Amino acid sequence: MRTWKQYSVRTRCAVYSGLTAALLSALFAVLLAGLFHRLDTAQVTDVVDGAASRIALNVQRGRVHARLAHGYVANLQVADSQGRVVAASAPMSGKGPMTSLLPPAGTPHAAPNARAVICGSTALGHNCHIVVEQRVYGVGHSWTVYSAAPAPPLVDPGLAALLIASVLAITGAVTYTCRRIVGESLTPVDAIRSELDEITVTDPARRVPIPPHEDEIHHLAESVNHTLTRLQGAMEQQRQFASDACHDLRGPVTAMRAEVEDAMMAEDHTLATTTGETLLATLDRLQAIIGDLLIIARLDAKTPGARDRVDLAELVTAELDARHPSTKHIERELSPGVLVLGDRLRLARLLANLVNNADRHADSRITIKVSRAEGEAEGGQDGDPRFATGTAILEVLDDGAGIPPDQRDSVFQRFVRLGESRARDPGGTGLGLAIARQIAEMSDGTLCIADSVRGARFVLRLPLAPKARS
């Protein structure tokens, strides 16, 4: 059994609007019927009151006959002070007084007339009548004039039929109009849904149609297209990543296969030692690629890191002291007390990747600097709210050949290695700088390549810890 929410929006809106229109129309019809009944009652009351006044005037003039002539108001009576009917119209002939609305004659401050709706009176029958009772005074005498006419029905049958037909017509018109309007409004939604159903992995460039009107559906279509654009970018990045990973993994595997085949075909069994050493070196590179791929997978998953207070100078000192000896001279220019909030292990990996990159490209010297800049403008991040507390700056410089300005952004892409880099270190993974920039961005910082007199100059900027400014 279908629940109410399982029906379409078009049907639900039409039903809601139809019920609302029916209730409001019915309420208006009831009020209108009540108004017409009140007007009819007032009109009949005036006619009955007029007939009583005419008979009273004739009584005062002494021109009353036993048989009263009547028109629309057929129920007429005249009674003396003793309550005896002395004159009556034909329908009321031989009947007693139709009612007693007024107090007995002579009652002080008594009203001269009275009006009421009487139902079930013996003299008038069982139907409801509008009765007017009027007292007339003469010389030593008093008379009571009675006048009555049938009360209008609560609702006239013709009027009731007209009101019911009007309520049904209004309800039907509102329901149809609402369903049509909602249907036309939801037509772009159907087009968007149909287009989304047609978009597949093999054709991710398609976009949903955007309605021309600036309404909520227009903004929805724009948001859907923006989402599709991001999904397409993520899919392309995933394809490129898989392609690059397969390309870089295929090289070590091919090299190992060739070494094994050469060793199997060689007659000299002492070649096994050389082959083993070659395979170990290749396996080291393969292990490094796999390790970098795992780090990238964790970073892509947006796994939040720790938020420790890290002293950059202490971090640099600890990492350099733990490094294997290098043929390059490493200079340190470290300002103490430069504190940032971040994951110490990730920041250490970022630093290691920058130093390893500098070690591969430097001719003889590597310089590592740690400094701080108070305020946004000095930190080079004007208008960026992330650096409102100040900027911590870590620079890694080498005296190598440097990186051309037009290639500075591409070196941060995954598996991208410049020709000079491949010549110096064919065993690199091409992922170190990509990992470093991703760690910087996840730490609310930036990593870029700045101009330098000689060699490459990598500049990491991180927000200072809030209490570090003082």
Automatic annotation (TrEMBL):
Its EC number is 2.7.13.3. InterPro entries: HAMP_dom (IPR003660), HATPase_C_sf (IPR036890), HATPase_dom (IPR003594), His_kinase_dom (IPR005467), HisK_dim/P_dom (IPR003661), HisK_dim/P_sf (IPR036097), Sig_transdc_His_kin-like_C (IPR004358), TCS_sensor_his_kinase (IPR050428). GO terms for cellular component: plasma membrane. It catalyses: ATP + protein L-histidine = ADP + protein N-phospho-L-histidine. Residues 244-466 form the Histidine kinase domain. Its main location: membrane. Residues 183-236 form the HAMP domain. It comes from the Bacteria. PROSITE patterns: HAMP (PS50885), HIS_KIN (PS50109). Keywords: Kinase, Membrane, Phosphoprotein, Transferase, Transmembrane, Transmembrane helix, Two-component regulatory system. It is found in: Cell membrane. PANTHER family: SENSOR HISTIDINE KINASE TRCS, SENSOR HISTIDINE KINASE YKOH. This is histidine kinase.
